[in-house]
TrEMBL record:
Residues 89-102 have a biased composition (Basic and acidic residues). Residues 78-125 are annotated as: Disordered. Residues 103-115 have a biased composition (Low complexity). This is Uncharacterized protein.
Amino acid sequence: MAYEADLGNGQTMYLEQQGEQTSIRVHGGGQSQGSGFHTGQWKAQPRLLKVGQELVLELQGASQMYYGLQNGQLHSLDSAPSLDGAEEVALKDVPDGSDKGAMKPMEPMKGMEPMKPMEPMKKMD
């Protein structure tokens, strides 16, 4: 299962369940930040909520987990935040592995050309 959300300001969040792991990546401004968490299998669809200036990701895996996202920085929350007045942000269902912002593997480097042999040293007088 994978989801994508438009966070505004040119930022996108990509969320994917990979076995017992949850991968979360935020892309924007030519940069990407990602984290992986052991969450267990999701028991419900994740929810992304806007609470004031912060976004809160709610995951129901082995336990109820919350992650905060502010200024493109992702962090785990120790306890459930107050969700009073929270506004739900739409998560779009996307195919697994469809993270458009993921870095592509580097192409192999070309080998170096061999060095020219050194000229013999001149005899000193």
